[in-house]
Queue: 3 jobs
Job 1
Amino acid sequence: MPADEKQIRTLIERWAAAVHSGDMNGVLADHATDIVMFDVPPPHRGVRGIDAYRETWPPFFGWQAQGASFDIESLDIVAGDDVAFAYALLRCGTPEDLAADPENRLRLTLGLRKQDGRWVVAHEHHSFPLADPAPPQDGDRQDGADPEQAEEEVRLLHRNWFNETAAKDLDGMMARIAGDVVSYEHDEPLQYVGAEAVREVCARGLAAAADASVSLDVPDLKILVRGDIAVTWGLNHVRVEDGSGETVDTWSRGTRVFERRDGAWLMIHQHLSFPHDPATGEAKTTLRPG
């Protein structure tokens, strides 16, 4: 194996191992400062620069901590004197994801350049194939897509939402919220009606975080789909960490309702809450899952 190809293969395998273990320093190593990544979730114009690239990973690490895999199945490399590219297929998903669709693979293309005598990744492109639903057979349900496929669509919506939150992409966060949404937020008033009202809540939250990194996850996410209606629930885990290492870590309860409109799932209702202390009436914001 030529020396350049061997170096690049080692670099990529080391990067994949760092992704799987949640090692941020290992993920960032051997990447150009002007890295451009086209990822599965938005933003649609891609993630540009090493700082923006760094911000995409905490939600993915949280998802992987639930038992998801990130394993290279095949890797091919073509290397020139100072430019190279590689393409790979990876098993990427939770055990439930892979059991539901054993043949699904994450597709990865990397563009590399030689910089100061060493190879660095200048471009990443991640994607999953867009699978068409199988045509209905006699006796099949006629009230929407296959329930397992619908559940995966709703689960992917959440993953994208978590990534958009980490990227502080307000437009991306609002992309799947219905114009007529009704949301019961942590703060008063009793309800927020309409997407613009919810957008203001999200904008205030991002502004309060300032330059701190933000991550959102629902580790125990449950999904129930019936026809064109989906209900999800679980414990929301929000983590805000500034550059000094100071961290605000909160858990709350969340229930969300989605409706499939014109083939796309939109959130039509959200209910968030903290438990309260019956003796004082104060919200208990420091509770953790037992």
Note: DSSP finds eight helices and 13 strands in the chain.
Job 2
Amino acid sequence: MNRKSGFTLAEVLITLAIIGTVAAMTIPTLMTNTNKMEFKTGFKKILSTTNQAITMSVALNYIDFSDTTSTGTNPTQSILGIFINRMHVTKTAYGNSDDTAVERMFHSGAANNYTIFFADGMVLSFPASSQNCRVGQNSRANICKGIVDVNGTRAPNYLSNCGGTQKKDATTDGGGTQCNPNNAGIFDQFSIFMADQQVQPNGQAAKYVLFEN
């Protein structure tokens, strides 16, 4: 008489319990790492596309950030105009009151900003007074700063920084603290600066994401 082998119900339940425990321990870490990679990739993408926009402006209109002289939408006079003219922009807003999405993303950090929504879901916000942005020595320097959100209105809407903390209403990532794998708080917002013919990371966290080995 042949005897059939198999698992008892208790053995199956124990195995499922072990698998569930391991999954509960590892899935949050995997999700966090996946989100960080998405944020890093998004930041590099928006740096690339905005730099392409200013390159096109120079090639076709002979205008870069240092040539801007107004805060309107004229593509040959303003930063806002350059981006509207050279990128796929779905809408713009001024301050928080123009759009509740701006309030959700930047809170009071964009109260005096132009905020640009791009077709790929990314967002750029910078002071409406920004113009004549250039790298120079002493009084000639006029670097214009801004914040990008790589996934728009979706959470978490925090500024990346080198302390690992969640900064909802920040305009700077903390200054001179060096980022490393242990203290890098990588979220969906990054600080940038615009000057001459370039858009570059501003602050240690943004630089860490772009230049990390």
Note: The chain is about 35% helix and 15% strand.
Job 3
Amino acid sequence: MASDTTYESYYVPHNSALPIFASLGIFLTVYGGGNLLNEMSSGSDSNFGITVFLMGGLVMATTLFFWFAKVIEENHAKMYSQQMNKSFVWGMSWFIFSEVMFFAAFFGALFYIRFWVVDWIGGVGERGPSDMIWPDYVPQWPLLDNPNPEQFAAPAGVIGPWGLPLVNTLLLVTSSFTVTFAHHAINHGDRKKIIGWLVATIVLGLAFLVCQAVEYYEAYAHYGLTLNSGIFGSTFFMLTGFHGAHVTIGTIMLIVMLGRAMKGHFTKTDCFGFEAAAWYWHFVDVVWLLLFVLVYIMGT
């Protein structure tokens, strides 16, 4: 029979309104995002969707700031047991797993559209009679000749993989090394290197976002590639856009870790906050490698 020392007390926090505010922030963000997409699709000049979306983001960001600050305070007060620390590890693990499933759904949609639907519309396979709707349609990918150009104007071209996408790949791959070097610095107790490598990682993340903004400008201005330019534009911006949002979140997480490192936080035995951010950053890097291969190289 296990001894009493096997069990540890589990810290139970006081009542808090933070989960309620988090729920409100999530609701406003999703509701505003849905309205924003509808307004973009319909060509509406309304600012309702973007206003609600930004309000939700502000509420969520403020809530997370105070929530994480409380968790850090409790951790420094030694209120957490090993059992509690394991719950943080499992919580972050399941969160990243949910993100894996999120992107798996989008990649699955991309494969379904590219390898089946595009051919079916062109009269290939068991759904051959569908070519009666658009008899002149030729199946191809990327889809630069939309079957219904009156409703969805086809783009003039797509973003090639060997320009900005390749630069972004090099930026993110390099950032995986720099954040790992920062982790090694924590294990060796070298505060100066922790801060230096974190700054380097953040700079690389911000550079990625700048390059992606430039790429989006080129797509819109030079190629006419938008969310309204057919199924290729939809899948391209959904995949790269959501990934860009994750890079933004990861960069914010790393900036918070930098602030904590500058305050003297993190030791070899107490650095899960940093490790969680590093896990998330590595996940973002792996997703981009898949995007680079499947969307840019194989998709153009």
Note: The radius of gyration is 23 Å.
